[in-house]
Amino acid sequence: MTIDRRCFIEGAGAFFGAACLAGCGGKLKSAFPPAGGGNAYSVAILGDTHYDAEPESVYHSHYDESNKWAKVQHEEFRRNGEMWRTRCPALLSASAGISHSSETRFVLQLGDIIQGDCDDVPTHKKMLDDCIKLLRTPYPEGLPFLTVIGNHDFRGKGARQAYLDFAGKFMSEEIAKLTGAADPAHAEYPAFSFRTGDDLWVFCDFETKDLRPVIECIESGAGARHVFLVTHGPFTTPDGGGSCRWRLAGRRESAALRPKLYELLSRRHAIVLSGHTHTTAYYRHENEFGGFCEFTANSVWSKPELATAQPLCSSAKEYGAVNLAKLKGEKLEDFKSELEFFRPGLKEYFYNKGAGHCRLDVADASVSVSFYPGDAKEPARTFNLLYS
Q1: Which end of the chain has less Cβ packing within 10 Å, N or C?
Q2: Is 245 a member of any domain?
Q3: Dihedral sign, CA of 136, 358, 22, 6?
Q4: Domains: count for the chain
Q5: Under a CB-based contact definition with an 8 Å cutoff, are residues 297 and 276 in contact?
Q6: Domain hosting residue 265, numbered range
Q7: What confidence tier does 39 reach under pLDDT thresholds 50, 70, 90?
Q8: With the C-alpha atoms ordered 43, 248, 187, 48, is the resulting torsion angle positive or negative?
Q9: pTM above 0.85, yes or no
Q10: Is 34 part of a structural domain of the chain?
């Protein structure tokens, strides 16, 4: 197997306890599960969680008020604190309850696991540590917990290195636990990969300018049953946001290699799992190379009414409709040009503002993801992620 590249917690822990009762370099030695029909498993999926706590002083007492975005970010602190009182713990409890009763192999969180904005390295590290302890509390003991780098995870003074130090150690240990490796290797961004069973999993930094490490990791998985690309920012141009380029391969420096990544994902019939947009979205691409699917998850349950599976868009012809109505001038023209890269091959599309938790089910001949709005215990929608 190759790997290429507290006060609040105590209260939330009590809540969980009651609820559960009611690039491509290092080497890992791995014992793979057997191939064939027995090699089926599930993954509990959380989108952005933006973990935070009340009062603001818990993690933001050092926040630099000269930040030009201070007004917006203070509103985010308020939003996070309110949703983490009861809604997000309830969402986690529901996800964990399903994990206790299914063949769950690991938990996958799709970036922006914390809010960040600490502007103090020890506080940022504490926020990460507190968050991991809290999020994994309701799940079965010993279940591996994986997360991909998101922009909030390193937002603040000195935070990027603090996050990379955390992720290198934590992710390496969790991957070793998942794969049975004797010695953990260092999980390094901009991209790294590992195998679990017959499947290749690639994790990447969605803001990387150079797509070569991502491409190399995917190419290294010859013979894999399924290929999963985990990225915080979506690969498919998302609707509904203010910046159509803030995504994987969205930078202008990535333009030359984006077609190669698109072709590679299509030839491998890959499955892209992403977050970032605070929406739930599904894309099925079909083209001359084959095709691939992408699913975007969201766990920012900022308002009670977001526990919904009602779509704003539910067909490929509606792709881009939400943002087209919001933009004008150069931003509109840029958004249209980005849509046109993906539009010809887009065959299915679903988009809504819903928040919740998801379950990925993987088998030889099928891969699907089920969306559970809010703290639902039954899925509202299930999407096929295996191109055929």
Answers
A1: C
A2: yes
A3: positive
A4: 1
A5: no
A6: 2-28+39-384
A7: confident
A8: negative
A9: yes
A10: no
